[in-house]
Amino acid sequence: MIDQQMPLRGGATRLPVRPGTGRFLVLAVVFVCAACGLVYELELVALASYLIGDSVTQASVVLSVMVFAMGIGSLLAKRLRGHAAVGFGLIEAALALVGGTSALILYASFAWLGESRHTLVGFSLAIGILIGAEIPLLMTLIQRVDRQDAGGAVADLFAADYVGALVGGLAFPFLLLPMMGQLTGALFTGAVNAAAGGALVLWVFRRDLCPRSRRLLIVVNGAVIALLATASVLVDDFERAARRAVYGNEVRVAMQTEVQEIVLTGPVSGSLDLWLGGRLKVSSRDEHRYHEALVHPAMNGPHRRVLILGGGDGLAAREVLRYPDVTSVVVVELDPAVTRLARTDPALSTLNGHAYDDPRLTAVTGDAFAWLRTTHERFDVVISDLPDPGITASTKLYATEFYGLVAGAMEPDGRLVVHAGPPSARPATFWTVEASVRAGGLATRPYRVDGRLSGFAAVADGATGGTGTPKGWGFVLAARQPVGRLGMDPGAPPLRTLGERELLAGRRAAERVRQHGVQPSTLVHPRYWEEP
Length: 532
Prior knowledge:
It is a multi-pass membrane protein. By secondary structure, the chain is α/β, with parallel strands linked by helices. It has helices at residues 19-52, 55-77, 84-113, 117-145, 150-204, 211-247, 287-295, 315-320, 336-344, 346-351, 368-374, 400-408, 427-439, 456-464, 500-512, and strands spanning 251-256, 261-265, 273-276, 279-283, 305-310, 328-333, 361-365, 379-385, 410-419, 443-450, 472-479. The protein has 2 domains: 9-246, MFS general substrate transporter like domains (Growth Hormone, Chain: A), CATH 1.20.1250; 286-512, Rossmann fold, CATH 3.40.50.150. The chain is elongated. Mean pLDDT is 88; it is low at 1-12 and 453-470.
């Protein structure tokens, strides 16, 4: 129960500190809790975008559910105002536990259950309710410290809350994520949250607590901090186990860069898989089918100077460099860790034919869109080997404006080829890419080739011997002038599988599923989404 005390100046409760100091400490805790709350939100958005895809949708789900839940939490907290000190202490302990473990449990549900959407909504709802319950109780506590008008108290609380949110929002991408990673960063944030909330109540408002409430808060906060600390110690083992559950037992390289997670699986000698941002980018079992179909039709014509957008793995460059009359190749890759891995990893560098050792190749680190805006070079062939257009971060690289920049970097008789996703499995996305290329001022010729199993199902099926559903790759060949028939350059090197007959069949297969009247995607009106 709450002790009855004689009111002091202005109705303030007797405290172990001066009213001004008490007010400062309450606002400082508001600042810390707001920073922690925003970190929880950003952790959920970032991890969900990586695990599920489409960052716009995931951010909308997290933020809308959380704001709705904050309203519910504020209403529920009205019942606790008579026990504001112990109520606030328990809510902060619960928030620290739920928020601190949210990223870990979300990743676990994805790794072992294969589904994380329901977990994402559940954590957004729980964290929102707990954050919403903070303000009514803090309002009661600050009034107990030093009586002031309600408007002034609300202004002080929200000022501290908003500044804390700013610090948390900046600390997440620039401090927590690069230094600790998503899982450890969330656990550390939870520990800070529990320590700040518990310290405020157990020190400043200790005279509001009966002995039983004081013992309860000490035990609960101690248990939460101990649990989060233990999880932090074990998080590396957890990550390794989760990666094995997702990628199989042969994870050889795993790193988190500022751009994405990079995972390389398979032995040094043998088949390998390269995963970028949780998506299978390269499988040595059949990558040649993709890269031969991507590169060689575009090389049918002048091809002395070649630009590769993306393709940091060096595999598209390998195919280009097989032409002896190529004089220069420029690879523009956003993530320098990918090109570094392609240079140094024995298996990957062998697979790409040690392309980065060829003096004709120049690697540039940068965003393809920004690089095209500043370059004055002109190329005979432009190869767009970029992430899937359905990924929100890549949408601008499949926009009409982007293809206008590409057209400006092409020689008058130059050619562009774009990886546009599978036309059968994702026809709306594929034909939106084709429409966007045309809107950029280029004539097009779509085609497809059969390819590997797609995504995580490929690993599961490969591990169990299943067959799965074959997926194809779709491409768009484009030029300033009408594109003639698909074919190979007379000086093309011998290919493993691709031939004139397969290209003709691939063109017909793409045309059979053509969608008419598709609108192009632009920067201000993106039209890509993740299709089932």
